[in-house]
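Q&A FORM
Asked by: J.P.
Topic: structure of Transglutaminase

PROVIDED:
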Amino acid sequence: MIRWWNGIKSSWHHSFSLLWLMVIARQWVSYTEPYWLEVTTAAVLLTLTFAAVIEILVPVKMIYRLLLEAVTGVYLTYRMILHYGTYVPDPWLPGLRERLPDIMSHMTPYIWFALGALVLLLLSSWWVSSKPRILMFTGMNIAAFAALDSFTSSILWQEVAWTVFAGMGWLVTQHLRSFQLHYPRGWTQLLKYPFKIAVNVAIIFSLVIITGVNMPEVRPTLTDPYTAWQEWNGNGSGSSGSKTAGSSDNGSGTASAGSTTSGYSTDDNNLGGGFNFDYSPVMTVTADLRTYMRGETRSVYSGTGWSDDNPFTRGDLKGGVVGQPLEQNKASKVQTRELKQTVKILGGNSYPVLFGGLSISKVNSVNGADTSSSLLWRSEGSELLWESVENSRAYPREYVLTSQVPVIPIQELNKQTYEQLYGGLDIDQQYLQLPGNFPERVRELAEKVTAQGKTPYEKIALLQQYLQQSFPYTNQPDLSRRKSKDLVESFLFEIMEGYCDYYSTALVTMARSLDIPARWVKGYAPGEQAELPDNLAVQQGGAVLNNNYTITNADAHSWAEVYFGDYGWIPVEATPGFTAPLLAQSEDTAPQATAAPEEEQTRPEQVEVNKGTQEQSFHLKIWIVAAAAAVLLAWAGFLLWQRRFTLRFFLQRLRNGQPLSAVQKVEAETARWVRYARRKGMLKEEHETLRESVDRWSHERPAASGNLTALLRMFERAKYSPEVIEDKDWRSVYTEALRLRKSIKSGK
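REPLIED BY: S.T.
REPLY: Here is the structure written out as tokens.
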């Protein structure tokens, strides 16, 4: 046992290096978690954890450790495929020899992920053995996370923060190891004070954490390399215009106009072009359900965009009254769930509509008031318009809405034929409108893609799947390939890449070419979950949930809504990378969140995983910051206590304008203990000297007589004696005064 413990102590630096390496490895597993199966994630995590434990606690020869770690990885993977039901043993196979081929076939490819991660861990721990390599390794990981954060939809700043933390800890470990090797005597002396070492390290880490958390957000002054490369290639960014959910390029077929940025546009007649992402915040939404924030609908397709872009001339408008129900075109075969949304507009932007979920049923308040004469309601398009007049009815900064979110019976709807959905209904022809010169090959493509669909719902599902899987998303499509004047035709057959305006317009027009009513909708995607103080969070089931979402200009978005008769209008998301958060109702289950009709079931699960991860990271961040703050407060308290004598006469020094002499300090301490005696009932009369008072107090409080006499002697020595008084003398007064307090308390 002693030999084993000595072996662990001698390899302490290797153990700590593995700890920091595991912290970084955990961040990569966190990044891949939404993309991997649960069994893969569990097998990799357990294999890495047990390998680190074996490396630390089993100090045997390397070959034996490697063999033990490999066997452990195989066993853990086997246990995981059993636990998650990936492999169910065949009860008819008699022995291990017969079962082994079946087991190994089911362990693939999970075993390769686990063993591959194990190899990376061991190679990294072997190679990263010096300060330059630690810096290089940590920097490479930070750069990789930063690149993934910039060019994917993942938000990886938490992973970057943990990697920086692990790198700092690794450098501290390496520094202590170097000190041990170069100065063994000093290391032996240092080991006598392990608590002091740990405290100093904790203080440094806490300072870094608190500084990082409280640093103000500053926009970058340097252009990132990717943007600089884009600008060098002629796709530079500008400062005007808006894209996504309404764009205003002329569609002439030239290179992407890089002078526009993402945002909500009011001109949709000429869609297309390119844009740059603008992440400036637009609004915050507080609600217990994430939804697309609908703005306006469009119906008239011109070949280059949507020409009916005047919201006040598209149909019958009625005045809306705050607090009163709005007229609804309810779907008879769909239940609804009530949703309350609080919207706060950021900045000075104004819009022709108030944004809300499908479909708004009531305006609860506008700018905190229950009256407004600027609301207009169009039930046909579920549009809540705002008729602003300069200086009298400015666009509201905050409003509260109630919406009725449809709960869609997907299984039932999927079986409804065209005749069952639309037979006997007088369909508004604006939702089937196509221009006279609509390209025939677009219609033929829609028929070809949906040939296997038997019902309108299935056909829409096939169209959505085709658009999402066939055309890559980009905010800078190559318009040099455009030949056709029609936006949809050029997108489907020439440009073959684009962003939401391309996909949504293509889905609406292709659906109409199949005689399925559809309309184009624009607004904002749900945005990202924001961090809130505890007093603004929502309590649910004893846990704090954050139901506040921040929407930026980059979340401006357009999508399609398809009309399914008595089932009403259903949002359909055709843009890859976007998921419409809907409520679905199967025939035998309660309402549950789902994606658009044809989305794979893995996508909603990923959304839930990310949501839970965000909430977990939010609480973890609070605990880390609280722990860092506690360490710094304790450190500050220790410093104050350590310098208590220096700070004792700080105020007197400020009043005098110069440091107090030792005699003045004795006098000040004497005045302090005399005031304490007064509070305890030992009054000094005006006509009495201190000696006379002390004599009287000694008779009244015999237990304190000795302390009083000693304090009197120190005072008279400093006041009247020619002896030199030093700092140690006033500290003696301070110490004796503490004894006096104890004597007075014990004498009661």
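FOLLOW-UP: Residues 234-242, 245-258, 540-544, 586-615 have pLDDT under 50 and may be disordered.
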